Amino acid sequence: MPDVILRKTVFSLEEIYHEGGPVADTPLLRGSALAIIRNPFAGRYEPEIKGFMEDLKPLGLRMAQRLVDLLGGPERIEGYGKGSLIGEAGELEHGALWHAPGGYAMRQLLADTKAIVPSAKKVGGVGARLDVPITHINAAYVRSHFDSMEVGCNDAPRADEMAFALVMTTGPRIHSRSGGLEAWDIKGEDGLR
């Protein structure tokens, strides 16, 4: 498979104290890591691409580690998600190559997570943005952790690039009060409840 050629990374950290209600003593942290790489399949149809997932694993682990560190350590992480933005000379399927390297990197560093890592992907031009879905790391049905974080970069993805994203949070939405399964009621059996 081709080499992973990294142009740049972009990291973002939000500290959310309130959404119009009372100010929280401890802010919710929401962070993202975005890696802009050359798309080795841009401009042509390549029938065999899944081997590139193996080549992306080290990138996924580096990004996940930096993001965990940015948010204060693995014990603080409660939510996660991943996403892909593919430049115009690529195809949506190229974004699917991030599923295993991105998701398993976070799950490996966070240890003993049960829930599947939600994802989003799309093809877009330079400056495109992507809303990356977020759910609880151990139970996808925990409504307080249903969230998303917008990611993007002003000069990416270029037509021959891919932008791969990881997103993590330290807790539920600020002022969550929509009911449903609560984090303290997780059974941890199936990644759903």
Automatic annotation (TrEMBL):
Pfam family of the protein (one): AA_synth
Superkingdom: Bacteria
Entry-linked InterPro entries: AA_synth_put (IPR009569), BB2672 (IPR035936)
Protein name: Amino acid synthesis family protein
Organism: Paracoccus alkanivorans
